[in-house]
Each structure stands twice: as structure tokens, then as C-alpha cells.
Write a structure and sequence with these properties.
The complex is a heterodimer.
Chain A lengths: L1 H9 L3 E6 L2 H7 L3 E4 L14 H13 L7 E4 L26 H8 L1 H11 L14 H12 L18 H21 L7 H9 L1 H15 L4 H4 L10 H6 L5 E2 L1
Parallel strand pairs in A: 1-2, 2-3
Helix pairs in contact in A: 4-6, 4-9, 5-7, 6-9, 8-9
Chain B lengths: L2 H9 L21 E6 L3 E3 L12 E5 L5 E3 L9 H5 L7 H9 L5 E2 L2 E5 L2 E2 L3 H17 L4 E5 L2
Parallel strand pairs in B: 1-5, 1-6, 1-8
Antiparallel strand pairs in B: 2-4, 3-6
Classes of the chains: A mainly alpha, B alpha/beta.
Chain lengths: ~250, ~150
């Protein structure tokens, strides 16, 4: 983000840059930078809170009065407490003959559809699979979790380009997180939906098992590393693959 | 896993350092046309998404609200954006500021890049300047840059 600020200013456009990672915005030093101690993915702080968002914008635009490069900090932090989980009532078991994750994914479809109607589809599915394919994907992931080699499990798009399994898993996660919005019916706290999906749902547990199974089977890291968020135990793997991203 | 751990991973990534800082003096804010440029990798529902790690940009119609994030990183929580697009792409807030006369106007078109890049040279030398030129041609005076 800060890199683009330098480029745009050189092109004759004034910029104000919101930064969420302090080390990044301090290092790249855009002409007018406002560090906001907000979670990643929440540049304006609080979803559904127009007054708060206006306070952020008021501070950001005030930097345009500066006569020289300026860096300031927004005074109201919004932080993930690391523990909050969305409170969502999952559908009861309906078909005992299918894997619990598959039953769950089917049962969440009405909630997903309500969220789609209210919010639109902003976070997926759509990267690799559509909503109608989510149950098929969950069936395949469940087979991997139960021991089927991932290349033979019928994951949509496999075989395909490197990283396709991660994209399918993100679409499944997006489907669940959308459904969670309909089930909770309030603005989500940062990461509360992710923790709900990974720790509380059957499909989240399946995906964590899929990631471990793929890693242990010797799959290329690009195929398993991003299936769920990495944790500290993956640092060694991450260090071996320094093609890591930088920020625009 | 949560935002703290995600940020720690991003904080360790080497960031570019600029020896000189370009600085463009804007017109008064109440006379300025403002656009949003975000690295949230947004596109419209009927557009193809940006390539993973691609340096290109998408043009977003400000009269629509069907913005989709195509980000591929599991280290991002996008549920806030799903609930309220303004937490990343605050067009409703800018419309309110324009209606109140705080800003001159909201641009008709906005841009999105992919915030996760393997190499910034293309953005610095090609798609970044191209985006700035395009916005300038649209009459944009001020850009609000929002990350993901």
C-alpha cells in the first residue's frame, strides 16, 4: 500500500495511506501515513460502525493539510483478543449415513443463502468452486481426512495448478463464514469467524486434518501450506520457502 | 492463531525503502475529487479476479456494490468485509462526506491491486504509474489508500 503511495504521488496525485502493520508503514514511509492499530482486513476499524469509520477518515484526510511528509497514529485501537469465537448454532445432524462435515455443509446452505441475499458474495466461494460445489469439496476433503491420498480423493480442480487445494479450501471457508454471518446476525469480531470455522465446525476440523495429512505425505508445500492458517510449528517450513510475499 | 500472529508474519517481511519522497500538493479537500485505491484484490462479481501475486489492477465502478475479494491468503480474516464493505472500501462513507461538502466529489471509478506481491518492481515501474495516470485522466485529485 505504501509503495503505491510513493508511485501515485510521483504521478501527480496526493495520497493518504492507512497502514495496519506498523513496521511496514514506518519503513516504507508514504508521504502521508496513518497507522491504525486495527486487525488486518479491517482498514477502517469496525465493520458496521459508520461513526467510527468517519473518525478514521477525518484523521486520514486531515493529513492533507501537511506541507511535508507526515506520519501519525490513530488514537483508538481495535484489536483481536485472540480468543473470541462467533456464537453460531450449527444445524443438528440430519443424515447419519454421511460424514458429519458433509451433513453440516448441507445444513448450512439456507444460512449461506440468507447471507448471500443480505450481503452479496464478497468473500467466496468463487476462487475455485461455486457454492453448489462446496458439499462435493467437503466430501472429498473428508475422504482425505479418512486416509485417501489427496490426489485421488476427488477434490474439485485436482489435478490442477499448484495451490488449487488451498483455493478450494478458502472457498469452503468463505461459504462457512458467510453462513456464520446469517447465524450470528451481528458485526463479527476480528478472527472470531475464523476460529469458529477452524475449531467449532466439523469441516474446519477436517481441513486441519487434510493439511496435516498432505504435509506428512510429502506433498509440495504450495499444495498444503495454505489450506488453513499456518501456526508456529510451520515456521521452519516457511523459512525454507522465502518466496514469501511483500506488500504493495 | 489470530490477528497478532498474522501481523507478526507480515511485520517480518522486508519492506521497500524510498530514498526520496514525492509529495503532491492537493487542492482544498472540499474541492477535491477523491478515489479509493485498495490492495484488497477486489473485483466485481462478473469480472475475473486479479491473478494471485499479479501486479495488475482492476477498475471498480463506484455506482455498484458487488465487490468481491479474491485474496488467497488464509492469514486474512475477511468476515468484517463480508459484513460491511466500508471497513475496507469506504464508498458509502465518502458519499456521505461528499453530501456534507467535506470532500468535493467521489470519483466514479476506483482501483484495486493485489496486496500480496512476490516482487514489487512491476507495481513500481508499470502498473502503479499506469494506475496513477488513469486516475489523473479521470480527474482524481486525492487517493485514499486502504490495505487489506
Amino acid at each position: 500500500m505504501s509503495t503505491l503511495a510513493h508511485v501515485f504521488e510521483a504521478g501527480g496525485i496526493a495520497t493518504v495511506t492507512i497502514g495496519l502493520v506498523r513496521e511496514q508503514i514506518v519503513s516504507t514511509a508514504p508521504p502521508r501515513g496513518l497507522w491504525c492499530d486495527f486487525p488486518l482486513g479491517q482498514s477502517l476499524g469496525r465493520p458496521g460502525d459508520a461513526a467510527f469509520q468517519h473518525r478514521v477518515l477525518e484523521h486520514a484526510f486531515s493529513l492533507l493539510k501537511a506541507e511535508a511528509p507526515v506520519f501519525e497514529e490513530f488514537a483508538e485501537p481495535v484489536r483481536d483478543d485472540g480468543t473470541t469465537v462467533m456464537s453460531c448454532t450449527l444445524p443438528p445432524r440430519y443424515d447419519p449415513d454421511v460424514h458429519p462435515a458433509v451433513d453440516e455443509a448441507r445444513g448450512l446452505r439456507p444460512a449461506y443463502d440468507r447471507a448471500l441475499e443480505r450481503f452479496g458474495n464478497r468473500i467466496g466461494p468463487g476462487r475455485a468452486i461455486d457454492a453448489d460445489t462446496v458439499v462435493t469439496a467437503v466430501e472429498a476433503f473428508a475422504r482425505v481426512a479418512e486416509g485417501t491420498p489427496w490426489e485421488e480423493a476427488g477434490i474439485p480442480g485436482v489435478p490442477g495448478e499448484p495451490g488449487i487445494v488451498s483455493r478450494v479450501s478458502l472457498d469452503v471457508r468463505g461459504y462457512y463464514e458467510m453462513a456464520a454471518l446469517a447465524l450470528s446476525d451481528h458485526a463479527p469480531e476480528s478472527w472470531a469467524g475464523v476460529r469458529w470455522f477452524l475449531n467449532e465446525t466439523e469441516t474446519g476440523k477436517v481441513l486441519r486434518e487434510v493439511r496435516a495429512k498432505m504435509r506428512d505425505s510429502g506433498a509440495e508445500w504450495i499444495d498444503w501450506f495454505f489450506v488453513t492458517p499456518a501456526d508456529a510449528s510451520d515456521d521452519e517450513v516457511a523459512d525454507e520457502h522465502p518466496r514469501g510475499p511483500t506488500e504493495a | 492463531m489470530g490477528d497478532k500472529e498474522a501481523k507478526e508474519k507480515w511485520a517480518g517481511i522486508e519492506a521497500p525503502v524510498f530514498d526520496e519522497t514525492a509529495f503532491t500538493k492537493p487542492p482544498p479537500l472540499d474541492q477535491a475529487t477523491v478515489a479509493v485505491v485498495t490492495t484488497a484484490s477486489l473485483h466485481h462479481g462478473d469480472q475475473d479476479g486479479l491473478d494471485a501475486y499479479g501486479a495488475g489492477y482492476s477498475v471498480l465502478d463506484g455506482s455498484r456494490r458487488d465487490y468481491v475479494s479474491g485474496h488467497y491468503s488464509p492469514l486474512l480474516d475477511l468476515t468484517g468485509f463480508a459484513y460491511d464493505m466500508n471497513v475496507v472500501f469506504p464508498l458509502d462513507r465518502l458519499d456521505e462526506l461528499a453530501a456534507d461538502g467535506v470532500i468535493g466529489a467521489v470519483a466514479d471509478r476506483h482501483l484495486s491491486y493485489n496486496g500480496i506481491q512476490l516482487d514489487l518492481s512491476s507495481i513500481r515501474l508499470d502498473s502503479g504509474p499506469a494506475g496513477a495516470k488513469w486516475l489523473k485522466e479521470q480527474g482524481v485529485d486525492v487517493v485514499l489508500l486502504t490495505p487489506i
